[in-house]
């Protein structure tokens, strides 16, 4: 059985299936520098996880897209402080994002 959390016209925010969770891509709610956008995206991710009774410790994989790989170190400073002692596997690549104001997009996968 597939459970779609907060479905929209084009995508659901999150999908639960067979004890696994997958989020859609998450971007910042407002323009800002990479640190501010990273904090905003990670805060949204935590809120989404809480909706299904999960937390950071349930994450198994995180995919990060950065508009500018020159911001990798600044993003990592925020991410490293957030992730804690149970880090999931992670990949980070540079990519053109959907709008020029977006500096970062994150998608997460986990186990319930």
Topology:
Layout lengths: L1 E6 L4 E6 L2 E4 L2 E2 L6 H18 L7 E8 L5 H12 L5 E6 L9 E8 L1
Parallel strand pairs: 5-6
Antiparallel strand pairs: 1-2, 2-3, 3-7, 4-7, 5-7
Helix pairs in contact: 1-2
- Remind me, CATH topology? 60s Ribosomal Protein L30, Chain: A
CATH superfamily: RutC-like
User: How many individual β-strands?
Assistant: 7
Major sheet attributes: 7 strands, mixed
Distance between the termini: 14 Å
Helical element count?
Answer: 2
**Level of helix content?**
25-40%
Mean pLDDT: 97
Name the CATH architecture: 2-Layer Sandwich
Shape assignment: globular
The CATH class assignment is: Alpha Beta
- Low-pLDDT residue intervals, each spanning 5 or more residues: none
Helix and strand string, N-terminal first? EEEEHEHEE
Strand content: 35-45%
- CA-based gyration radius: 14 Å
Sheet/helix structural class: alpha+beta
Question: How many domain units?
Answer: 1
Family: Belongs to the RutC family.
Protein name: RidA family protein
Pfam families: Ribonuc_L-PSP
Descriptive overview:
With 112 residues, this protein is of the alpha+beta class. The chain has one domain: 2-Layer Sandwich (60s Ribosomal Protein L30, Chain: A). It has two helices and seven strands; from the N terminus they run E-E-E-E-H-E-H-E-E. Strands 1, 2, 3, 4, 5, 6 and 7 form a seven-stranded mixed sheet that branches. The longest helix has 18 residues. The chain is globular, with a radius of gyration of 14 Å. This is RidA family protein. Belongs to the RutC family.
């Amino acid at each position: 059985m597939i459970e779609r959390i907060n479905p929209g016209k084009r995508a659901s925010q999150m999908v639960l299936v067979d004890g696994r969770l997958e989020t859609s891509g998450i971007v910042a709610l407002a323009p800002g520098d990479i640190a501010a956008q990273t904090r905003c995206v990670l805060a949204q991710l935590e809120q989404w996880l809480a909706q299904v009774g999960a937390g950071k410790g349930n994450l198994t994989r995180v995919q990060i897209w950065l508009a500018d790989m020159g911001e990798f170190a600044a993003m990592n400073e925020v991410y490293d402080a957030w992730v804690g002692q149970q880090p999931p596997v992670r990949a980070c690549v540079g990519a053109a994002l959907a709008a020029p104001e977006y500096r970062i997009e994150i998608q997460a996968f986990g186990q319930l």
